[in-house]
Amino acid sequence: MASDAPSVQLGIDRLAANRFRELAGKRVGLITNPTAVDRQGNPTVRLLLKAPNVRLVALFAPEHGLNGDLPAGKEFPNMTNRETGLPVYSLYGPGPTRKPTPAMLKGMDALVYDLQDTGCRTYTYISTLGLAMEACANAGVEFIVLDRPNPLGGVRVEGPTLNPRFKSFVGQWPVPYLYGLTPGELARMINGEHWITNSCKLRVVPMEGWRRSMVWKDTGLRWVPTSPNVPRSESVLGLAATGLLGEIGGLSIGIGTSTPFECVGAPWMKGKRACEYLNGKNLDGVRFSPITFTPARGMYKNQTVPGIQIWFSKPATAPLYALNFHLLEMADKVFGQSLFAQATKRGQSFQMFDKVNGTDAVRHDLQAGRPATEIIAKWRDGENRFRKQRAKYLIYE
């Protein structure tokens, strides 16, 4: 923890400071993974096990598992946690199990949610959040969110708003791709906007000292990887800026390097020319420098490829999701590599691409050859509507 940085107190810190009053006398379940730690690094599960007059009876694990080390999309079964002897219920289990069942919640008074999120709509922890709220509403179980920062800050709202026709586990709620809410604020919005069948009895234990202008590096908190490909807080910025490119192919986005999502390359790319083009756009708060790297995974596995490194000088306000489209345009205009057209020619399915965007409008725009600036401009009305819609659910001004 940086000694000169402000120290944000997390929801779990506030819960402990209140002597776990909100959980007193209750049988409790906990949705958790390694990101659930207090500001000193103590795991929430251990704190609840030691808490007076609180009975922790079960653990629930989201995508990537209880230990946070499973690859994206890997399902896993229920199990018993060796360290605690508690049952671990999979919320990313074989088949359709994506939310707690009545049997899992039986005899429980409250289900606690403590997961660090990335602030991207497609990151499935927020799907788990709302679906668990819905399950608790139907079972008459209280739902308690121990709040955590949005690592991208609480100001940025960017990208297309999800069209309900494209609702999926990587896009569950009608919010922009980057929605600028903490988990607690989003839970309030899910409940208040009736995005789940029945509203649940919701309690949010808020943070102290967090401001909307803060990105992760401003919080004074240590980053715990949210999943294998998000090892650093900077990885979250890259995830938003290049993650969509992974649904198209033709480029390495640094998966299998020490800086996943923060570099982009391919054998045909010349880093200096790519950087000259991208830096010439004068995008606010983001710069590019030439690099070579050797990804251990993906289509250029174990090949040393030239490319670019992305640097965010203004991580709270720099465009993120928009960068995916500027990078696609760079590949086409500078190197004659129309990656979207190549993927179409390969017969690639764009089903996941549409789900990630939350709409098929982006795909249609790319197929029509529309420029990045035009695609990005189409999001603005939806972004502004969402800012107004979310206002009454904000906890931190």
Can you tell me about this structure?
Strands 3-4-2-1-5-6-9 form a 7-stranded mixed beta sheet, sandwiched between helices. It has 397 residues and is an alpha/beta fold. It has 2 domains: 11-222 and 389-393, Rossmann fold; 233-359, Aspartate Aminotransferase, domain 1 (Alpha-Beta Complex), CATH 3.90.1150.140. It is globular, with a radius of gyration of 21 Å. The relative contact order is 0.13. It is 29% helix and 15% strand.
CATH superfamily of the largest domain: Uncharacterised protein PF07075, DUF1343
Mean of all residue-level pLDDT scores:
96
Overall number of strands:
12
Total discrete domains? 2
Descriptive labels:
13 helices; Rossmann fold; alpha/beta; about 400 residues; 2 domains
List the helices and strands and how they pair.
Elements: H1 11-17, E1 26-31, H2 44-50, E2 54-61, E3 79-80, E4 87-90, H3 102-105, E5 110-113, H4 125-139, E6 142-146, E7 158-161, E8 176-178, H5 183-192, E9 202-205, H6 233-242, E10 263-265, H7 271-279, E11 286-293, E12 305-312, H8 321-335, H9 339-345, H10 351-357, H11 361-367, H12 372-377, H13 380-390
Parallel strand pairs: 1-2, 1-5, 2-4, 5-6, 6-9
Antiparallel strand pairs: 3-4, 7-8, 10-12, 11-12
Helix pairs in contact: 4-5, 7-8
